[in-house]
Amino acid sequence: MKKDTPPWMERPTLLGLTGKGLVLALVVLVMLFPIYVVVLTSISSAETVNRAGGLVTVPGEISFDAYRVLFSNSVVTRSVLVTAGITLTGTAVSLGSTILAAYGLSRPGSLFHRPLLFVFLLTFLFGPGIIPSYLLVQSLGLIDSYWSLILPGAVSAFNLIVMRAFFMNIPDEVIDSARIDGASDFRILRRIVLPMSKAVVAVIGLFYAVGYWNSFFNAVLYIHDNTKWPLQLILRQYVQQGQNLAANNRVIDTVGALPPNLAIKMAIVVVAMVPVLFAYPFVQRHFTKGVIIGAVKG
Prior knowledge:
single chain, MetI-like fold, 0% strand
Protein backbone atom coordinates (compact mmCIF):
# COMPACT_ATOMS: atom_id res chain seq x y z
CA MET A 1 0.00 0.00 0.00
CA LYS A 2 1.42 3.33 -1.04
CA LYS A 3 1.90 5.89 1.71
CA ASP A 4 0.44 9.36 1.24
CA THR A 5 3.63 11.16 2.22
CA PRO A 6 4.44 14.55 0.71
CA PRO A 7 7.63 14.51 -1.37
CA TRP A 8 9.38 16.97 0.95
CA MET A 9 8.81 14.65 3.95
CA GLU A 10 10.25 11.54 2.34
CA ARG A 11 13.61 10.24 3.50
CA PRO A 12 16.36 11.40 1.11
CA THR A 13 18.17 8.77 -0.90
CA LEU A 14 21.90 8.16 -0.68
CA LEU A 15 22.34 9.73 -4.11
CA GLY A 16 20.39 12.80 -3.01
CA LEU A 17 22.46 13.21 0.17
CA THR A 18 25.68 12.82 -1.80
CA GLY A 19 24.57 15.40 -4.35
CA LYS A 20 23.60 17.89 -1.64
CA GLY A 21 26.93 17.39 0.10
CA LEU A 22 28.87 17.99 -3.11
CA VAL A 23 26.86 21.13 -3.92
CA LEU A 24 27.34 22.52 -0.40
CA ALA A 25 31.05 21.73 -0.51
CA LEU A 26 31.36 23.53 -3.86
CA VAL A 27 29.51 26.57 -2.52
CA VAL A 28 31.79 26.68 0.56
CA LEU A 29 34.89 26.46 -1.63
CA VAL A 30 33.64 29.24 -3.88
CA MET A 31 32.98 31.44 -0.84
CA LEU A 32 36.26 30.67 0.95
CA PHE A 33 38.62 30.84 -2.02
CA PRO A 34 38.63 34.67 -2.35
CA ILE A 35 39.22 34.99 1.41
CA TYR A 36 42.04 32.47 1.19
CA VAL A 37 43.70 34.39 -1.66
CA VAL A 38 43.39 37.75 0.11
CA VAL A 39 44.80 36.44 3.41
CA LEU A 40 47.60 34.51 1.70
CA THR A 41 48.64 37.52 -0.38
CA SER A 42 48.69 39.74 2.71
CA ILE A 43 51.16 37.45 4.50
CA SER A 44 53.37 36.64 1.49
CA SER A 45 56.86 38.00 1.00
CA ALA A 46 57.86 40.27 -1.86
CA GLU A 47 59.49 37.36 -3.70
CA THR A 48 56.34 35.25 -3.49
CA VAL A 49 54.11 38.10 -4.71
CA ASN A 50 56.46 38.92 -7.57
CA ARG A 51 56.71 35.28 -8.55
CA ALA A 52 52.91 34.97 -8.60
CA GLY A 53 52.62 38.13 -10.67
CA GLY A 54 49.79 39.44 -8.48
CA LEU A 55 47.43 37.67 -6.09
CA VAL A 56 49.04 34.62 -4.49
CA THR A 57 47.23 31.28 -4.71
CA VAL A 58 50.09 28.91 -3.85
CA PRO A 59 51.73 29.39 -0.42
CA GLY A 60 55.34 30.48 -0.43
CA GLU A 61 57.53 32.44 1.94
CA ILE A 62 55.51 33.91 4.80
CA SER A 63 56.08 37.50 5.91
CA PHE A 64 54.05 39.79 8.19
CA ASP A 65 55.83 42.95 7.06
CA ALA A 66 52.63 44.23 5.40
CA TYR A 67 50.85 44.23 8.77
CA ARG A 68 53.82 45.86 10.49
CA VAL A 69 53.80 48.64 7.92
CA LEU A 70 50.02 48.88 8.13
CA PHE A 71 49.76 49.30 11.89
CA SER A 72 52.81 51.51 12.14
CA ASN A 73 50.92 54.03 9.99
CA SER A 74 48.92 56.42 12.14
CA VAL A 75 46.32 56.90 9.39
CA VAL A 76 45.22 53.27 9.44
CA THR A 77 45.43 52.90 13.22
CA ARG A 78 43.31 56.01 13.72
CA SER A 79 40.75 54.88 11.13
CA VAL A 80 40.37 51.50 12.89
CA LEU A 81 39.68 53.27 16.19
CA VAL A 82 37.23 55.64 14.50
CA THR A 83 35.34 52.79 12.86
CA ALA A 84 35.25 50.78 16.09
CA GLY A 85 33.89 53.78 17.99
CA ILE A 86 31.26 54.52 15.34
CA THR A 87 30.23 50.86 15.23
CA LEU A 88 29.85 50.51 19.01
CA THR A 89 28.09 53.84 19.50
CA GLY A 90 25.91 53.52 16.41
CA THR A 91 24.86 49.96 17.23
CA ALA A 92 23.90 50.98 20.78
CA VAL A 93 21.90 54.00 19.55
CA SER A 94 20.21 52.12 16.71
CA LEU A 95 19.43 49.02 18.74
CA GLY A 96 18.05 51.03 21.65
CA SER A 97 15.89 53.19 19.37
CA THR A 98 14.64 50.19 17.42
CA ILE A 99 13.73 48.25 20.58
CA LEU A 100 11.77 51.16 22.04
CA ALA A 101 9.97 51.94 18.79
CA ALA A 102 9.21 48.29 18.00
CA TYR A 103 7.84 47.61 21.49
CA GLY A 104 5.64 50.70 21.35
CA LEU A 105 4.31 49.81 17.91
CA SER A 106 3.68 46.21 18.97
CA ARG A 107 1.17 47.35 21.63
CA PRO A 108 -2.23 47.96 19.94
CA GLY A 109 -3.28 50.67 22.38
CA SER A 110 -0.09 52.76 22.16
CA LEU A 111 -0.24 56.48 21.30
CA PHE A 112 -0.42 57.23 17.55
CA HIS A 113 0.12 53.54 16.86
CA ARG A 114 -1.21 53.39 13.29
CA PRO A 115 0.07 56.79 12.02
CA LEU A 116 3.58 56.09 13.28
CA LEU A 117 3.57 52.60 11.80
CA PHE A 118 2.42 54.05 8.48
CA VAL A 119 5.27 56.59 8.55
CA PHE A 120 7.84 53.83 9.06
CA LEU A 121 6.30 51.68 6.32
CA LEU A 122 6.33 54.69 4.00
CA THR A 123 10.13 54.73 4.08
CA PHE A 124 10.12 51.41 2.22
CA LEU A 125 8.66 53.18 -0.81
CA PHE A 126 10.15 56.67 -0.68
CA GLY A 127 13.69 57.79 0.14
CA PRO A 128 14.78 61.34 0.92
CA GLY A 129 17.48 61.48 -1.78
CA ILE A 130 21.11 62.49 -1.45
CA ILE A 131 20.75 66.28 -1.78
CA PRO A 132 17.89 66.70 0.75
CA SER A 133 19.74 64.43 3.18
CA TYR A 134 22.94 66.45 2.80
CA LEU A 135 21.09 69.75 3.28
CA LEU A 136 19.43 68.40 6.42
CA VAL A 137 22.72 67.18 7.89
CA GLN A 138 24.34 70.50 7.00
CA SER A 139 21.51 72.52 8.60
CA LEU A 140 21.93 70.51 11.80
CA GLY A 141 25.65 71.34 11.88
CA LEU A 142 26.73 67.72 11.62
CA ILE A 143 29.20 68.08 8.74
CA ASP A 144 32.57 66.63 9.82
CA SER A 145 30.87 65.18 12.89
CA TYR A 146 30.83 61.49 13.70
CA TRP A 147 27.10 61.82 14.46
CA SER A 148 26.52 62.38 10.75
CA LEU A 149 27.50 58.72 10.28
CA ILE A 150 25.03 57.52 12.92
CA LEU A 151 21.90 59.66 13.13
CA PRO A 152 20.74 59.72 9.45
CA GLY A 153 20.33 55.94 9.42
CA ALA A 154 19.85 55.27 13.11
CA VAL A 155 16.64 53.27 12.66
CA SER A 156 16.10 50.82 9.81
CA ALA A 157 12.44 50.30 8.91
CA PHE A 158 13.12 46.67 7.97
CA ASN A 159 14.76 45.91 11.31
CA LEU A 160 11.96 47.72 13.12
CA ILE A 161 9.25 45.68 11.39
CA VAL A 162 11.06 42.39 12.08
CA MET A 163 11.52 43.22 15.77
CA ARG A 164 7.92 44.44 16.08
CA ALA A 165 6.68 41.17 14.57
CA PHE A 166 8.74 39.23 17.10
CA PHE A 167 7.41 41.29 20.03
CA MET A 168 3.85 40.68 18.84
CA ASN A 169 4.42 36.93 19.21
CA ILE A 170 4.91 37.30 22.97
CA PRO A 171 1.67 36.15 24.68
CA ASP A 172 -0.49 39.02 25.89
CA GLU A 173 -1.22 37.08 29.07
CA VAL A 174 2.40 37.40 30.18
CA ILE A 175 2.44 41.17 29.73
CA ASP A 176 -1.03 41.61 31.25
CA SER A 177 -0.07 39.62 34.35
CA ALA A 178 3.00 41.80 34.83
CA ARG A 179 0.91 44.94 34.41
CA ILE A 180 -1.57 43.65 37.02
CA ASP A 181 1.35 43.22 39.42
CA GLY A 182 2.09 46.91 38.99
CA ALA A 183 5.00 46.76 36.53
CA SER A 184 5.48 49.77 34.28
CA ASP A 185 5.96 49.48 30.53
CA PHE A 186 9.72 50.06 30.82
CA ARG A 187 9.97 47.42 33.52
CA ILE A 188 7.97 44.96 31.42
CA LEU A 189 10.24 45.65 28.45
CA ARG A 190 13.42 45.28 30.50
CA ARG A 191 12.49 42.32 32.70
CA ILE A 192 10.14 40.29 30.50
CA VAL A 193 10.17 41.21 26.81
CA LEU A 194 13.92 41.58 26.24
CA PRO A 195 14.92 38.32 28.03
CA MET A 196 12.39 36.51 25.82
CA SER A 197 13.72 38.24 22.68
CA LYS A 198 17.46 37.61 22.89
CA ALA A 199 17.49 35.97 19.45
CA VAL A 200 15.98 38.87 17.52
CA VAL A 201 17.97 41.44 19.50
CA ALA A 202 21.22 39.61 18.70
CA VAL A 203 20.38 39.36 14.99
CA ILE A 204 19.26 42.98 14.62
CA GLY A 205 22.31 44.11 16.60
CA LEU A 206 24.54 42.22 14.17
CA PHE A 207 22.75 43.80 11.21
CA TYR A 208 23.37 47.27 12.61
CA ALA A 209 26.98 46.54 13.57
CA VAL A 210 27.87 45.15 10.15
CA GLY A 211 26.15 48.11 8.50
CA TYR A 212 28.12 50.65 10.52
CA TRP A 213 31.39 48.77 10.10
CA ASN A 214 31.06 48.54 6.31
CA SER A 215 29.47 51.95 5.72
CA PHE A 216 31.51 54.42 3.68
CA PHE A 217 29.07 56.43 1.54
CA ASN A 218 27.90 58.66 4.39
CA ALA A 219 31.53 59.33 5.24
CA VAL A 220 32.17 60.35 1.63
CA LEU A 221 29.29 62.84 1.83
CA TYR A 222 29.65 64.26 5.32
CA ILE A 223 33.27 63.82 6.46
CA HIS A 224 35.64 66.26 4.75
CA ASP A 225 38.42 66.06 7.35
CA ASN A 226 40.61 63.09 6.38
CA THR A 227 41.77 62.70 10.01
CA LYS A 228 38.22 61.55 10.81
CA TRP A 229 37.92 59.03 7.98
CA PRO A 230 36.68 55.56 8.96
CA LEU A 231 38.45 52.40 7.86
CA GLN A 232 36.27 51.87 4.79
CA LEU A 233 37.33 55.21 3.33
CA ILE A 234 40.98 54.32 3.92
CA LEU A 235 40.27 51.00 2.22
CA ARG A 236 38.78 52.83 -0.75
CA GLN A 237 41.62 55.34 -0.85
CA TYR A 238 44.49 52.86 -0.92
CA VAL A 239 42.93 49.80 -2.56
CA GLN A 240 40.57 51.17 -5.17
CA GLN A 241 42.38 54.42 -5.99
CA GLY A 242 45.82 52.80 -5.81
CA GLN A 243 47.63 55.16 -3.44
CA ASN A 244 50.82 53.74 -1.96
CA LEU A 245 50.49 53.42 1.80
CA ALA A 246 54.04 52.23 2.35
CA ALA A 247 55.47 55.34 0.73
CA ASN A 248 53.76 57.51 3.34
CA ASN A 249 54.94 55.50 6.33
CA ARG A 250 57.34 57.14 8.75
CA VAL A 251 58.65 54.03 10.46
CA ILE A 252 59.70 51.90 7.52
CA ASP A 253 63.11 51.42 9.13
CA THR A 254 61.58 49.04 11.66
CA VAL A 255 60.52 46.72 8.85
CA GLY A 256 63.51 46.83 6.56
CA ALA A 257 62.72 46.28 2.90
CA LEU A 258 59.32 47.55 1.88
CA PRO A 259 56.69 44.83 1.37
CA PRO A 260 54.85 44.90 -1.96
CA ASN A 261 52.04 47.42 -2.19
CA LEU A 262 49.61 44.64 -3.16
CA ALA A 263 50.31 42.81 0.12
CA ILE A 264 49.59 46.00 2.08
CA LYS A 265 46.32 46.49 0.22
CA MET A 266 45.24 42.94 0.98
CA ALA A 267 46.23 43.45 4.64
CA ILE A 268 43.83 46.43 4.79
CA VAL A 269 41.10 44.22 3.33
CA VAL A 270 41.78 41.57 5.98
CA VAL A 271 41.64 44.13 8.80
CA ALA A 272 38.30 45.40 7.49
CA MET A 273 36.96 41.85 7.11
CA VAL A 274 38.11 40.05 10.26
CA PRO A 275 35.77 41.64 12.89
CA VAL A 276 32.66 40.67 10.93
CA LEU A 277 33.94 37.12 10.40
CA PHE A 278 34.56 36.74 14.13
CA ALA A 279 31.22 38.27 15.17
CA TYR A 280 29.03 36.28 12.78
CA PRO A 281 29.49 32.76 14.30
CA PHE A 282 28.31 33.95 17.73
CA VAL A 283 25.01 35.23 16.29
CA GLN A 284 24.45 32.77 13.43
CA ARG A 285 22.53 30.29 15.57
CA HIS A 286 19.90 32.96 16.26
CA PHE A 287 19.23 33.80 12.61
CA THR A 288 16.37 31.38 11.96
CA LYS A 289 14.58 32.05 15.24
CA GLY A 290 15.26 35.77 15.27
CA VAL A 291 14.33 36.73 11.71
CA ILE A 292 12.45 33.99 9.86
CA ILE A 293 10.04 33.04 12.67
CA GLY A 294 9.37 36.65 13.59
CA ALA A 295 8.84 37.72 9.99
CA VAL A 296 6.53 34.81 9.09
CA LYS A 297 4.35 34.72 12.18
CA GLY A 298 4.14 38.51 12.55
